[in-house]
Design a protein that fits this description.
27% of the residues lie in helices and 26% in strands. The chain has four helices and seven strands, in the order H-E-H-E-H-E-H-E-E-E-E. The chain has helices at 8-26, 38-50, 68-71, 102-112, and strands at residues 31-35, 57-59, 90-98, 119-127, 139-143, 150-156, 162-168.
Length: 172
């Protein structure tokens, strides 16, 4: 798959269809929890498109990242918002791009600060490979390896339409 021609909207539809089929087959109605920022955008759309009755949540992984000292805090830190009890909950954590696994690890640490869920699954728009931690998503829009220093950047327009581009990482 050519990383320069990825259509984020097509990836979103593939992810939505996978999750819809899995939930239909299992009869489950989990809470979606989007990881700020791109994962929150995707979780919002999935929540509406799948017609889930369970409340949606949002996670900030900023304080649990192991590279917090290097990265610092985002200019506009978006807080964790969980309006439901995490303890015993069935969750699908939604993120935009899975790379090293460090953001997912940080998100799980943040979740467990609020309680112990019964189940946590991971849904991502794009898996770019390059794992540093043993993390895998159950639901994936596409797998498109991309070697550093290049990185995928997800954006959302005012109408909610997603787009992906490849950029060279800063300092590279």
């Amino acid at each position: 798959m050519d990383p320069h021609t990825l259509d984020a909207e097509r990836l979103y539809l593939a992810l939505r269809d996978q999750l819809a089929a899995a939930l239909s087959a299992s009869g489950r109605t989990p809470h979606l929890v989007g990881v700020h920022t791109g994962g929150a955008w995707i979780a919002d759309r999935l929540h509406g498109d799948l017609g889930l009755a369970t409340p949606i949540g949002y996670l900030s992984s900023a304080f649990h990242r192991d590279d917090y000292g290097e990265r610092g805090l985002p200019a506009k830190l978006k807080p964790t918002q969980l309006s439901f009890d995490i303890a015993g909950a069935d969750l699908v954590v939604v993120d935009d791009i899975l790379f090293t696994g460090r953001t997912v690890r940080a998100a799980l640490n943040e979740l467990f600060d609020y309680g112990r869920p019964a189940r946590v699954e991971l849904a991502v728009l794009l898996d770019r490979g390059g794992r540093e931690l043993p993390v895998a998503a159950q639901y994936v829009g596409a797998v498109a390896p991309l070697a550093p220093p290049a990185q995928y950047m997800l954006s959302q327009d005012t109408g909610g339409r997603l787009s992906l581009r490849v950029e060279r990482a800063e300092g590279a």
